[in-house]
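Submission sheet (multi-component)
Chains listed below:
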Amino acid sequence: MKIGDHSLEQLDGQLREAGLCWRTGPFILRLKADIPQLTPWLHTMYGEHPVVTEPEIIDFHLQMRRGRGLRRWWRPQVHFLLDGNILFAPFPLDHAPPLFEWGLNLCIAGRANHFLLLHTAVVAKGGRAMLLSGVPGSGKSTLCAALVVKGWRLLSDEFSLVHPDNGMVYPLARPAALKNQSIDLIRNLTTENLIGPAFPNTRKGTVAHLKPPAASVQAHEQPAQPAWVICPQYRPDRPAHLTPLAPDHALLRLGANAFNYETRGASGFHAIAALVNRCSVHHFFHDNLEEAVVALESLSTRDIQPSPSETSS
Amino acid sequence: MTLTHGTLSTPLLTLLRQPDSFPNLTLPEQDLALRLLRRAGLLAWLFYRLQEGDSWQTLHPKVRDHLEGARVVAVEDERMLRWEVNRIRRALLGTGIPVTLLKGAAYCHAGLPMARGRLVADVDLLFVRDDLDQVEQALTEHGWKQVKLNSYDQNYYRQWMHELPPMRHWERLTEVDLHHTILPITGRLKPNPALLWQDRVPVVGESGVWTLSAVDMTLHAMVHLFHDADFDRGLRDLVDLDGLFRHFAKTEPTFWASLTPRARQLGLGRPLFHALTHLNSLMQTPIPQAVLIDSQKDGPIWPLRPLMGLLIPLAILPGHPERANLLRILAWWPLYLRSHWLKMPPTLLFSHLTHKLSRRWRPTVQNRRLV
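Outcome: structure written.
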């Protein structure tokens, strides 16, 4: 059963009472919430995600709770809690969905140390993963969303979950956060209505989310083999152009931006070194999303790197 | 769910006493146990205890992931701790001032098996009070800075506490606490630091680095829990103490014979009484009957004795992570007041508590470690 199969009333009831349990990528979470605004958003954005009815071990016990006392009514607020602990300063009540997404990101970044957690977006085609690495503002999330809209599989817009034993990237197909101008850029790429409501005036400006495609969510048990590392940079008047990047540069770059590169010690180094050695690594300037997608499409068909996941399956 | 308070706390205690019984719990019980242990900073502790046994492969894959994630963090904590001690030694090079490690840093450098999987928050060091200015100066020259405190807190530390305000390295963001004794100088109990100093033990292979003696290390571990009322970490302290007792009972032939006399010499008979009582009842730590009986002399009078016996377990044992626990709150307050009563004379206590209360009315964000 999927979250979208429930009626809004059923969903709301579960969120208020025992909590709603669902799987996203390798994680199972349980959310209790008394926020009416959150229910329809979850119903749409996580609509394809499988509900877990008899959870055995839950990775994240989460709660979204309205502010208490005066804050319930006057400029009402919402809190995000993990295991009963408040993790953030409260958000305004109508920003509950972005708070949920950021809260869950923080939980994963802090806790999932059995993975090497790289700070990149990941998309895939035919079992081969493309990692998009960039500092905030470089346009990695936008490019990721554009590729997904054009048919690539979404693994994550925020995390590469690299398993240190086999070097595979594990999927976490959650809503992809789009900021400010990116929202309309992605909206204009497609006639389908894939983007949720916009939340103005958050800490990162206006935020809206791209719904993860059903096929990406359903592939939650299929890891992908890293094949490309792309460091995109949106720059007006720089037509799409790929420049090969030395693997050692890519290693430092991925390591410096990772969530737990230092925490994982030597195994973090070895995992990234193996990854960049296996991948084709490029710097990528572009000034137009449609052309950028075409350039990366042709890179993916040109590169004839054998992929173990394909040969084995 | 039956892992928490009162009669319900038994399964959690069973788990702390016999970590290899973890696989016998049902999966929902394991889930709750993982949450309680994580909150207490004991998840990596469980990893190492289960890894020693042969049940690892039979565990639910998700349980293994959580424990493995905790192990990764604990290994990094230990690496950082060793590097930090190395850097502190370097900063003090040429001053001739010896470094005496306390708490976690000491357990780790003394090679105690209970240190494996222990999370580290900061490095605690003991110096002779007259050397502190020079130590502070040397650390400042090597990149440590005072953690920003308001003037009240600065004064609080410098005038009344047993340590300077914490210092933090500008780049590594690690914290170091510089102690000159083990309890606040305004407190009722005043263990003589010169006695601790005399009995120090050198760390093998690290010249100029010392730890307290086995007995003093154990006594120091118990003042935090049974005198300072730091109950947030109560479960972890309890497990630490159990580990110290079991280890030193095996490795130090004179441990039990010298424990009570040393505690009395340092004026720590009362905390030792509470520690022995509760380790015996909660953890079933093996303690010789003679030591238990002898320590009774240092216990409080009726009705304090049964009252403390009731309050301490209530405050130490965690409640359900998502439910407010009235009993625990009721137990916590008198113990909190008691710890302050023991920490400072009444007039100081009054002004300190009014000051703290006036700062209480702000939203609290518990951005504590998630792992």
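Remark: The two ends of chain B are 23 Å apart (CA to CA).
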